[in-house]
């Protein structure tokens, strides 16, 4: 039975990928992991047309937990390169059983649809329960090249 006590997560690292699947035994499969940057290509634009690349990304955030059992509410913010607006995702991690020492508790989010209009940085930030500001977890350069 879950304790409704708010617990504190400590994020360790973030992985951005194309897909995340979960096996019957609970293990995650991360597909298409981005390791240094995201390279995108678009068609040749016409004079009256702007071109964008559409992505559906998944985010796997590895966390450690200080407490044994409870819930950890969070908000994730994703800023795309144009910074015209951020995507905010609300959720919570529920821990029903005490984790083993050094066990990773993942936050798994996706697919998140993104429309990329230009090169720049994709920034993933996290705000945990009780925090006033988002903390940047991962900055991934995005290179958007148009055909000539």
- Assign the CATH architecture: Sandwich
Helical proportion? Answer: under 10%
Derived from helix and strand composition plus strand pairing, the structural class reads mainly beta
User: What's the story with the biggest beta sheet?
Assistant: 5 strands, mixed
Shape: elongated
CATH-defined topology:
Immunoglobulin-like
Number of helices: 0
Overall pLDDT confidence: 85
Which regions are unreliable across 5 or more consecutive residues at pLDDT < 50? Answer: none
CATH class: Mainly Beta
Rg on CA atoms, Å:
18 Å
| Strand order, sheet with most strands | 3-9-8-5-6
Count of distinct strands = 9
Task: Sketch the topology as an H/E string, one letter per element.
Answer: EEEEEEEEE
Task: Report a brief summary of the structure.
With 148 residues, this protein is mainly beta. 0% of the residues lie in helices and 61% in strands. A hairpin with a 5-residue loop joins strand 1 (9-22) and strand 2.
Structure description:
With 148 residues, this protein is mainly beta. It has one domain: Immunoglobulin-like. The chain is 0% helix and 61% strand. It is built from no helices and nine strands. It has strands at residues 9-22, 28-33, 38-42, 53-65, 70-79, 86-95, 105-116, 120-128, 135-146. A five-stranded mixed β-sheet has the order 3-9-8-5-6, with no helix packed on it. A hairpin with a 5-residue loop joins strand 1 and strand 2. The radius of gyration is 18 Å and the shape is elongated. 15% of the residues are buried.
């Amino acid at each position: 039975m879950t304790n409704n006590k708010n617990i504190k997560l400590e994020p360790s690292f973030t992985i951005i990928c194309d897909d995340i699947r979960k096996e019957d035994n609970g293990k995650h499969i991360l597909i298409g992991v981005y390791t240094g940057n995201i390279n995108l290509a678009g068609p040749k634009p016409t004079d009256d047309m702007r071109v964008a690349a559409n992505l559906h990304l998944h985010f796997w955030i590895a966390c450690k937990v200080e407490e044994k059992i409870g819930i950890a509410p969070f908000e994730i913010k994703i800023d795309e390169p144009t910074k015209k607006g951020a995507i905010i995702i609300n959720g919570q991690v529920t821990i029903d059983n005490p984790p083993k020492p050094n066990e990773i508790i993942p936050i798994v989010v996706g697919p998140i649809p993104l429309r990329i209009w230009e090169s720049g940085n994709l920034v993933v930030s996290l705000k945990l329960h009780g925090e006033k500001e988002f903390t940047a977890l991962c900055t991934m350069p995005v290179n958007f090249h148009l055909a000539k």
